[in-house]
Amino acid sequence: MTGFALEAVGLQKSFGALPVTDSVTLRLPSGARTALIGPNGAGKTTLVGLLSGTIRPDAGRISLGGRDVTRDGSASRVRHGLVRTFQVSSLFARLTVLENVFLAVSEHQRASGGMWQPAGRRRALIDRAEAILERLRLTDHRHQEVARVPYGVQRLLEIAIALALEPKVLLLDEPAAGIPTDEVSVLLETVESLPSHISILMIEHDMHVVRRFATDVNVLVQGRILMAGPPAVVMASPDVRAVYLGQSGQSRFAGGAHGA
Amino acid sequence: MTGAVSPFLLRHRLRPLEPVWWLLAIAYFFVFPEYLAVATSVLVMALFALSLDLLIGFAGVLSLGHAVSFGIGAYVCALINLAGWREPITGVLASGAASGLFALAVGPLILRLRGLPFIMVTLGIGAIFYEAANKAVWLTGGDNGLPGVTLDPLLGLFRWSILGQTSYLYVLCWLLVLFYLARRIVASPFGVALQGIRENPGRMLLIGAPVLRHLVVAYAIASAMAGIAGALSAQTNAFVGLEVLSLTTSIDGLVMLVLGGIGRLYGGLIGAPVYMFVQHFAQQWNPYYWMFLIGGLLIFIVRFSRGGLLGLFDSLVRRVGQGHGDR
Prior knowledge:
By secondary structure, chain A is an alpha/beta fold. Chain A is 36% helix and 24% strand.
C-alpha cells in the first residue's frame, strides 16, 4: 500500500520508565539518501536496533517494501533486504577479510547449508566476494586476519559485508566514526557510488558528511523526531541549533566545513 | 604475498603430515598385535573427541553432556543386538541415527542458550540420563549393564578374533570414514558458517544466517558421530555399562581434545592416545595418585600452548623456520 522502501510508524520503546524512542515515524522512499542526526543519548542506536530487529518495539510497526516485518527477527529482515552496519565494527576477527565477505556472500546466496563442496572450491562465491573487495579497494588486504588490519579497513569491510547481502535498504550506523580524515573520503565516495535503487539511512554526527551525503535529514532528540527536511533547511533551524548543539557548538555547526 | 594464507579457503587441501597419523595407526597393528584391545578403545575415544571438536572447536558450543550422545549410541546398539539383530554395520548406523535424532529433538530447545547457562543445561541433561539409566534396570540392566553383545562376522566374511585384529581395523575404518566426512564438513560453506557463529553469533544473525538451524544441524552431526563411537564401544567390548553415560566420559573427551588441540580435527586423534597412554602408565606407577600426572600434564599443555600438543608442534616447526607443518 505504500511506495516506501522502509516505513516505520509510531515506533515506541521504553527501557523501564525511560522512553528512548517516542512515537518515531520515519519513511524512506526508494533511493533515499537520508541522514539521521541527534545529540548523544538521543536514541539513535536504539532506533537502528528497532529498525534492524535486534530490539522489539513496544508499539508501532515497521514495513519493508510494503511488507510488514514488525514481528520478524533480524535474520529474516536481512533476507528481505534490510541490512545494517555497526558503529563499532562487529566483524569475524579471527577470519581473514576475504572470509568475512565470503560468509556474507555464502549466506546471501543460500549456500551455507552445503556440506560437501569445499568453500575454497566454490569459485562463484569467492569471485563475488573478491569483486566486492575490489570495488572497495580492499583487495590488498584480502588474506589478512581482520583483527590485524587498520581500523579504516575494518570500517570499509563493514560496508563490503553489507554490499554482499545486496540490500534494498541500508542502515549505516556512523560509518565514518573513528577513521582517519583522509580515509573518510574513500568511504564517502564508496557510499556515493552505491546504486541509486538502494535506500540509505545514515546515522552521522559529522555535519560535513551529512551535508555532502543527504538529501533529507531527520533530527532525533530525546527519542522524538524534532524536525525533518532538506539539510539546508534543517541546519538553518534555530530549534535544531539550540537543542542539538547547545550554545557553544553553534558556530561549529554553522561552519560545517571544519566538521571532520 | 599479502600476509597469512587464508585458512578455510585452503582447508580442503591435504597437508603434508596428515597421512602420517593414519600410517602410524596401521603400523601399530603390525608392531603391537598383542595390545590391540587397548588401542581399539583409544580409537573409539578418538572418534568421540573428534565429534566433540565439531561442536566445541568449530561451532563454539561447549557441552559437558556429550556422553549422553555416546551413551545413547552404546545402549541402542546393545539393545538392538540383544534383540537379535547381530549385523554390526547396520547396528552402528542405527545407533548413530538414534543419537542424531536425540540431538534434533533437544537441540532446538537448548541451543538458544549460550555460555554458562548452556554448559549447566548440558551438565543437567547428562545427570538426568545417567540416573534414568541407573533406575531403568529392565532396559539398561542398571548397575550390571548389558553383557553378551555378540556380532555376526563382519560383511559375512571376517570373524571377530580373540586378539581383536578385526575389531581394531573395523574401528579404524569407521574413524577414517567419519574423519573424512568431518573434514569435508568443516571445509564446506556450512563449516565456514559454523566458524562465523563461533566468532560472532550476533553478527551472523545480521547477515541473515539461520544461526539456530545451523547449530542444531551441527549438534545432530556431532551427536550422531558420538553415538557411532558409543556403538563401536558396545560392539568391541561386547558390553555396555553405566559409565558410558557418566560425566567422566564427557570430561575425558574434553580433556583429550584440549590436550591434542581444539578446532583442528586431529586434536582428538592425538589427544586420545596420549591421554590414555599416560593414564595407563600413571596408574601402574601409582594406582591412587595417578591423577596428579594427568592434571600436571593438562596444566603444562594449557599453560604453554593454547593449541594443545598440535599447537606446540606448530610453534616448534615455526621456530625451526620451515613452517611447512602449519599450512
